[in-house]
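User: hey, got a sec? need Fungal lipase-type domain-containing protein folded
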Amino acid sequence: MQIASTISTQSGLAFQASRSTNFSCRTSLLKPLTRQASVLNHTITTESTRTHLSHLEKLLQKQAPPPPLLHKDSCHGSSPKNRVKNHLEGLNLSNIWAKMKAAEEMSPRHLNRLQRLLSMSAERSPRNNLGTRWREYHGCNDWTGLIDPLDENLRREVVRFGEFIQAAYHTFHCNPATSEEDALFSRSQVALPDGSYRVTKSLYATSSLKLPSWVDDLAPDLGWMTQRSSWIGYVAVCEDEREISRMGRRDIIIALRGTATCLEWAENMRDVLVRVPGGENSEPNHPAKVECGFLNLYKTPGSNMPSLAELVIEEVRRLMELYKGETLSITVTGHSLGAALALLAADELSTAEPDMPPIAVFSFGGPRVGNRAFADRISKNGVKVLRIVNSQDVITRVPGMFVSEELDQKLRDNSKVVEMLNVLDNMPWAYAHVGTELRVDSKMSPYLNLNADVACCHDLEAYLHLVDGFIASDSPFRENAKRSLARLVNEQGSNVKKLYKSKAKDLSLNLDHKQVVGIPSCLPSPS
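Assistant: Yep! Here you go:
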């Protein structure tokens, strides 16, 4: 009885000592025991603690990461009480929530880098001299050897061209200029990302659709819904001599935004292929065709202005005459609908003058524009096209019948099916892509959710973010990506991982939409 009482007392004291937060476990608190009682006490204490810890660990497995390794004093030869103490210290019950958040914590170095990325000023890669290789970066060899892995200079050029499109989004307004003064005002409002360029011409696109006048009477405050003509982009030319020397030529840029008005959306839906004007010289059995809606927006004149086609051709001819004798290049860049119109503009420019400068198209999230005969015509006329495509962007796979580009090429390499494919090429929805492809993937970004929605996968800022982080198709997102995340968080907050949104709040960053220069003032549409 005396031994049992002593064992009970000592077991209770040992268990209490094991739960004590200071883990002192001084032996002076324990009464002397006989050898037999000590052995029995050790067995009961160890089994009781082991059962307790087993239950506790099962509960914590659903709430926190596995406990860290034991301290050094828990090695072989330590006492049972020390092992109990180290087990509980390893669990660190008072800091379980901190353990759960440990994965989200960053070292000061990573936190400083994130703060720079979330700052409003985007950092750029250094400008290298392209003088002797500018034609290569402009696509003379179809960017062979520069895509995968992505050349640093090409990355910077692609991102820069994308920022010219952002300036077009930012300056968008629905009402077209009705006078020369209005046109000058529109040009002055374009906030170019590169101060070495100057805007020389505002561009407008006009829908061929005419709505009844009573629609305006019913919705007088929603004129943008029925406005046929709207500002869609601009022409700019490089005027800085140092930049001209760095690039190796004077560059003329044509930048075009994506869909922004209701009638532009309506034109996007008119996806039947029609013959390209001026394509009479193409193969009679396989004429070049493009989407009806895109061609209408490009060729239709407004009530008080020329068509987009006339504006582009006229301004390029004027600049060619102004800088006659200099080395020139023409860069046409666009996003979504703007990417489609960029191809049409480049196609027409290529045959507008016999001594036309080299023409390159840099398109972001562009849909299919025409049939294979149109793609062949673009290539034959010397226009170089670099399509930046997000694998998750469905807009790059429309309009027309869905056929994998790789499968299509494999089939065409088989002479037995070429004749059948030629028949398919003449069908109303037989579309084909043009040019060289730079493929990125939103799932590779460590900042975007894996289930990012369609709008995010098609968003221009998301495209620039992905290009900035792209190294190669078999490589992870580059750790030294320099582009600011501020616009991405601001525009695609629901698609950015919670960690980075919370860090943006912790850093007290002002992500006010109105203060983010270059943010589109309208939602980029699917085409």
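Quick note: The beta strands are 197-206, 229-238, 250-256, 273-275, 289-291, 328-335, 359-364, 384-390, 436-440. Let me know if you need anything else on Fungal lipase-type domain-containing protein.
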